[in-house]
Protein 1
Amino acid sequence: MSTTKSKVLSNVKKSIFNLGMVVLAMLTVVSCDKDNTSSQHGVMAISAKGKISDDNNSSKTAKEVGSNIVVSDFLVNLKEFELELDLDYEDDENEQWDDDRFYGFEDEIELEGPFELDLLKGEINFINVEIPVGTYEEIEFEIDKSTDANSELFGKSILIKGTIDDVPFIFWHDFDEEIEIDFEDPQTQIEIVENETNLTILFDLSQLLYGVGSVDLSQAVDGNNDGIIEISPVDPDGNNEIAAQIKERLKDIIDLLDD
């Protein structure tokens, strides 16, 4: 091979090598930028509370619900919270959110629980977790029976106690139900930012047990005359229909608030 051809071949090899190094450097920068962007996190704090009010939205006394009905306990067992990335929004705004390996299966944040809540104890902060910043769709969670043998909710998903005309009553159910909640305003998004985002799940007990569309507990009876009005799917007192009404109504009285 002539000296001239050898030099040309050498220059070509050097050019290819240099081009390869430039491409590699560009890929490294893109990769770093993507990793740096997708690693941004914020804190999502979720709390829950019960609300009791009359039709005029004025406050009622702590546990009085309607005429001659007093609620002393309202427990619910929640589990398997899911928060799904709003991919339609993120595709338009931030293409880097398409990296499924970062979020896991189908870009969902999953929190197993369980979370046992006493809704008459004021506002309860029960989730405080670091998650990627972004815009998310509605929150989905499951109401299911407790498996904690030391809990009053053991074998139950919801438990309400109180009095009806001064006679003690107990309502419980063991249903398994998935609930999806979002803001009342469809234009309001669940936005997780780099600092703390506070969300509140509101259980409006007045809608459940008082006012228009509520369940009329005054119709419940002590069918077996043991001194306790029992309302449950087991139905010892003949109140099974009321138990079913409470179960169905419960799904309609849960809202999401942005603090």
Protein 2
Amino acid sequence: MPQSDDVLLEDETLRDGLQMEQRVFSLEEKLDIYTHLKNSGIQRIQVGSFVHPKYVPQMADTDEFIREIKNQGNDGPLLTGLILNSRGLDRALNCGLSHLSMSVSISNSHSIKNAGKPAAEALIEMSHLIQNAMQSGVVVRAGLQCAFGCVYDGKIEEQAVLNAAEKFINAGASEINLADSTGMANPQSVRYLVNQIRLKFPETPVSLHLHDTRGLGLANMYAGYCTGVRTFDVCSGGLGGCPYVRGASGNVPTEDAVNMFSVMGVATNIDIQDICATVAGLERILERKLPGRMCSILASGIGNCGSKQKEEN
């Protein structure tokens, strides 16, 4: 975990970033993306999800991908993966991952679409899976999807979020991740909900997974930072979105988050030029511009204040 005012940016390009793309990335392309992210200084990378390839074809080779990364050595960033069910947990344990994100939706409608079961049932099952993962020596980050609202169910009650967080913490989760899966959060709602979680569970770190659907991603990230959050999920170029959320768009771009924290004097240990090289490679493969802003700004030469971010020890 980051210390003092520094932040940890977990890059999810290889999971959330790719899962919405129709063009399936090869193992070699994924390894190239991973190498770029590693070289940029990213300290935690979500390399995939353990889901059925019928529903998310991009994740069909997650197990093989992780084994290939491990064959390169153990000097890289912390690898993590997303778990939604017991079969996924078994696969992750077989891959030797020591850190996992285990997530459910607070929204009943979204839970049925995303996990195939009501939210209450999914919460109970995931709590048991977290206990199993902990007994296997895995560090678990417990995610609460749609914590700030749902396009299907509307407002999500604060108490439902708090109850789910408590259940996961009691099961052994070491971090609570509040996910704005639908991009409905605003700075005020972020500050309020984060404060409620931190007041009730002061010993448990809170992280944020923010989507930029309504253009508030960076503003919400800053609100979270001001409320004490020091871990945030990002995607190179602003890729990503949930296939089961109507109108969902991408995550906060890694390069834009790095720039924001840099100009604030907050360390990320990430080189923005290396991230922009990753974005350029993605744009060539996808044959389109990605929504992140800083790559275009740096290429134009009109703003280099955030061009070098990797701190020297």
Protein 3
Amino acid sequence: MLLTLKVVDKDGNSKAVTEGEGDITLVHREEYQNGDQIILTSSEKNIFLKVQVDDALGSAYVYITKNEIVYKIPDTEGRRSLSPKTFTGNIHLLSARAAAKEEIGNYRNLAVNVMDQHGDTGCYPHASANVETRGESVFAAKNAIDGVIENHSHGEWPYSSWGINMREDAEFKLEFGRSVLAEEIHLYTRADFPHDNWWQRVTLTFSDGSNREWELEKSDKAHILVLEGKKIEWLMLHNLIKAEDPSPFPALTQIEVYGREV
């Protein structure tokens, strides 16, 4: 399998590039500018890769359904949901490799993706929602699958969350890009009390057409739902019933889906 990593500017001009079979790295020795993008291409699609678009962000274990994946370097506002070390400085280490057979078969969190973005990128897992508070990056749906469970504050990293802007009809969707076997779901609701409210009950709808109502409580710990090997391609979190509390601000810090590949 041939992989290519490339950094390009806003006009598509190449700034750094590398390619190779199976396992590649790229050192980019410039500060990022507005409009810069990282482009990953693969001679194969519908495969598992381990990808690092920034050394401060860490590696993403992803399933790609396209031969070309475009990662847009976030602007100043977009970086508010990331560590302040991310995409800064004048030297950056990028990498990509095929996932090993043993990695693919492991029991793991199937939901986490530190390089998730808005839109149909062909890179999964992918989070989306019908509302994100004021369109700010620190309240984007992707924050709920970034692997960070710290939930005792809000509005800046590492307290990024999915914010619903007080919408009663808020919905969050998590897509895997293929069928997986889900064993457990862990929810970390934001717990910046007394600023925050919390959800007493939520509904999960799955790609197989089934639904589960889930009773929650006021807590900063993980809420755990056992599914026992449910085969799904996506799930939706909706019908979010908040508690009787003066605060109008419930939010989701993280969703984890533990299981295996089908």
